[in-house]
Structures are given as structure tokens and as C-alpha cells.
Design brief:
Blueprint (H helix, E strand, L loop, with lengths): L15 E2 L3 H4 L5 H5 L2 E10 L13 E13 L8 E9 L1 H24 L5 H12 L5 H11 L11 H31 L5 H22 L5 H9 L4 H8 L9
Helix pairs in contact: 3-4, 3-6, 4-6, 5-6, 5-7, 6-7, 7-8, 7-9
């Protein structure tokens, strides 16, 4: 298309439909998520140092919501944007959103499995992405950064931070449950040729639980966590003691 030099243009390669939480309750399937939509959003990651990406404790995100003059689908492929709103997400909000998205992906696959349609490839991709030895540093870094010692210092204990810290802790507990449920599903559908993979993932889950449980169930210092990791222990007994705290109410 020919772009006029007399007008200002703002281009984005990709946007997603934007819905408030209450709207999602009424949009039950893909059709409803794609019909009568007049708000879209895109996210721009940034850090105060100037780079787009950084450590999880420094990662901010600017969410821009665009409102169009009419709802899509429409007779025109392009509609005028009549309103623009921006919101900056703090690092703990970004981390909470990330963990929530991971849990939603697990929920989708596990719900499909309950309906008798097992997507084995997607199930194993999620397991590998959660506790594969080369990729699980992301969730671990999030937990250590926002649920560890530094997150409990008085200077960061404002009401908003505490609210998101509790939300993040809940999402992290759910994440552990989802990994366990996914591994149980995987055990029921794999062949004998994948038994070694299953055992490896189960061992990875044990190590991951041991590393993160002190932060989300029974807060300890980093020194104590490292000491426990270096001790010779029986994984099952150690984990059962760690996981024995109140699962829903601990904060």
C-alpha cells in the first residue's frame, strides 16, 4: 500500500485481542475470542538500563491497548485507532504473568487429556520446557528473585508488591502441581522406549522441588537452601517433609 507522506503512521507487526478479566468469563471458545473485538494490545519489554531485556528483577513491560472505531471482523481490513492507553508492568507483575501463562498452557493440555485426546508432543514439550536441565533456570530465577530473602526487605514491602508476591507464590505452587500431573499423564501414555526420558524428568522434578520449596512453602535463607542442596539426602523423604506445609494458605 502507498503510505502518504502528509500523515503520521504508526505500524505494528503483531497485536493480540485485549479482554478484561470479566470479559473472558463470557468468551468460551476461539470463535468468541475472535468476534466482536475492538481492543487490541502489544507489549514492549524494557529495562531502566536502556536494553530491551535484562534479569528478571529488572524486566519491565509496557502494555499498549489500542481501541478501534468499529469491531472486528468488519467489511474493512483496517480500522482507525480512536484510543490508546498504556500501562507499565513492574518486574514482579511481568514474572507473575509469565508463570500464569505457563500454567494456562499446562491447563489446556491437561484438560485435553481428560477429554481423551492426548497431545503427546505438546505435553512433552511443556514438561521439557518446565524442568529440562537447560531451561528450568527461568522459573527458578523468578522464584529466587521475588520470593527469596531480598523480597522480604522492608523497603520493598508495599501493599502492591505484597499482593503480587502472594499471587506469584500461588502460581508457583500451581506450576509444581501441573508438572507433576503432566508427568503422571506422560507415564500412562509413553512406550518402553521412553522410560529413560520419564525417569530423567522425574529426577529433574525432584531437584526442582528441592530448590524452590523453601521459597514457596517454608521460607529459608539462601545459605540454608544451598546447604540442603549439597547434603546427601533421600529425595522422597526430604521432599515429603518440605511439601508438608499448608498448600493453600502459606504466604
Amino acid at each position: 500500500a502507498v503510505v502518504s507522506t502528509q500523515s503520521g503512521h504508526y505500524g505494528r507487526a503483531y497485536v493480540e485481542p485485549y479482554f478484561e478479566q470479566y470479559e473472558k468469563k463470557y468468551r468460551k471458545d476461539d470463535f468468541e475470542y475472535s468476534y466482536n473485538v475492538d481492543r487490541f494490545y502489544y507489549s514492549t519489554p524494557f529495562t531502566h538500563s536502556g536494553s530491551a531485556h535484562g534479569a528478571v528483577g529488572e524486566q519491565f513491560k509496557r502494555v499498549t491497548v489500542l481501541t478501534t472505531e468499529f469491531s472486528f471482523p468488519y467489511v474493512k481490513n483496517r480500522l482507525q485507532v480512536v484510543d490508546i492507553k498504556e500501562r507499565v508492568m513492574t518486574p514482579i507483575e511481568v514474572a507473575t504473568e509469565d508463570m500464569t501463562r505457563k500454567n494456562e498452557e499446562f491447563d489446556e493440555v491437561l484438560r485435553t487429556n481428560r477429554d481423551g485426546k492426548v497431545d503427546v508432543k505438546m505435553l512433552q514439550m511443556l514438561i521439557q520446557g518446565a524442568i529440562g536441565t537447560t531451561v528450568n533456570q527461568g522459573p527458578l530465577e523468578i522464584i529466587e528473585t521475588f520470593l527469596g530473602e531480598n523480597s522480604r526487605k522492608p523497603e520493598v514491602q508495599d501493599d502492591k508488591y505484597i499482593k503480587y508476591r502472594n499471587r506469584l507464590k500461588y502460581q508457583c505452587k500451581t506450576f509444581l502441581n501441573n508438572i507433576k500431573a503432566a508427568l503422571n499423564e506422560n507415564r500412562n501414555i509413553i512406550g518402553t522406549f521412553q522410560e529413560d526420558y520419564q525417569r530423567e524428568m522425574e529426577e529433574n522434578l525432584k531437584r526442582f522441588k528441592l530448590a524452590v520449596s523453601p521459597f514457596i512453602f517454608n521460607p529459608q535463607t539462601h545459605a540454608e537452601v544451598k546447604h540442603n542442596l549439597n547434603r546427601s539426602y533421600d529425595p522422597e523423604n526430604s521432599l515429603s517433609r518440605t511439601m508438608s506445609y499448608d498448600y493453600g494458605g502459606q504466604s
